[in-house]
Amino acid sequence: MEKNVILYSLRSGIVFCTLYRETYEWFVQRKANFADKIQALFVWGGVIKFDQNLLKSLFNLKAVVNGGVGVDHLDIPLINSFGVKVSNTPHVVDNATADIGMSLMLASARKIVEDEGHSFSKFRDGATLGIIGMGRIGYKDEMFEMKILYHNRNRRSESDERAVGATYFASMKELLQRSDFVMVVVNLSPQMHKLIGAKEFAVMKPNSTFINISRGLVVDQDALVNALQKKMIRAAALDVTYPELLPRDHPLLSFPNVIVLPHVGIHTVETSQIMVERMVTNALAAVTGGQLPDEVKA
């Protein structure tokens, strides 16, 4: 069955186009049919190649609007060079992403997916959660009677720390050594590429659980596989990987103590609705010559 690209036409003549991973090739092959009408592109998930050929063909394009915070899949300097602006949807995804982090921690700690019957956990009696990247999302990951440690580029205010009972560690190594659960919540940047690798897994507790809700490339996945094989850590729970989705024969999918989700952290009805509203607001600003409230610059 032929897939469709969704076009939104407003009374003003503005046309928005939504691209999904599954429809991208279809769109590229037929873009000449409606290229002159498209003024804003909505990008949802997957990796869309905004190369020079595509950008040249969409000569009325004003904005590329990304659903979600991460824009590492977009070549922003290239897009900007065509006079096209880029925006994302920050803040909107914070609660849903924090929820998935705590859900993964609970599922792994209580071995819900493993279904081993009797499972014992330190989770309720003084377990320690170490958060790497305590920004908006990481700050929301505060619950239960747990000790909260965090490592950040910038230390939060004393009032923020008191509000959630968090203790700052300037040394990520020391945080890793002390934590029963390690949750990574950083943004992907060149500096964060493979932030967690063999050296980091080597200093973690052998009964610790590694949780990643940031981006797959923040972790050296080969090092993670090795850490699990050698029982350097107890378990892993991941909402993000590279690539997404993982091949069916990937080693991470073979471990009974590893939970892998297909990057669904922001997939709630409420969050999706707010995201779309925010995307429309940014697109309308771009095509009417206004300032994009969530513009991302190179």
Overview of the molecule:
With 298 residues, the protein is α/β, with parallel strands linked by helices. Helices cover 30% and strands 17% of the residues. It has helices at residues 24-30, 52-57, 76-81, 94-109, 136-140, 158-164, 172-178, 198-203, 221-229, 269-287; strands spanning 6-9, 15-20, 38-44, 63-66, 85-87, 128-132, 147-151, 166-168, 181-184, 209-212, 235-238, 258-260. Helix 6 links the parallel strand 7 (147-151) and strand 8. It is globular, with a radius of gyration of 21 Å.
- Strand residues, percent: 15-25%
Q: How many individual domains?
A: 2
N-to-C span: 39 Å
Q: Count of helices?
A: 10
Descriptive labels:
298 residues, Rossmann fold, seven-stranded parallel beta sheet, 10 helices, 12 strands, 17% strand
Quick synopsis:
One of its GO terms (cellular component) is cytosol. The protein is of the alpha/beta class and 298 residues long.
List the helices and strands and how they pair.
Blueprint: E1 6-9, E2 15-20, H1 24-30, E3 38-44, H2 52-57, E4 63-66, H3 76-81, E5 85-87, H4 94-109, E6 128-132, H5 136-140, E7 147-151, H6 158-164, E8 166-168, H7 172-178, E9 181-184, H8 198-203, E10 209-212, H9 221-229, E11 235-238, E12 258-260, H10 269-287
Parallel strand pairs: 2-3, 3-4, 4-5, 6-7, 6-9, 7-8, 9-10, 10-11, 11-12
Antiparallel strand pairs: 1-2
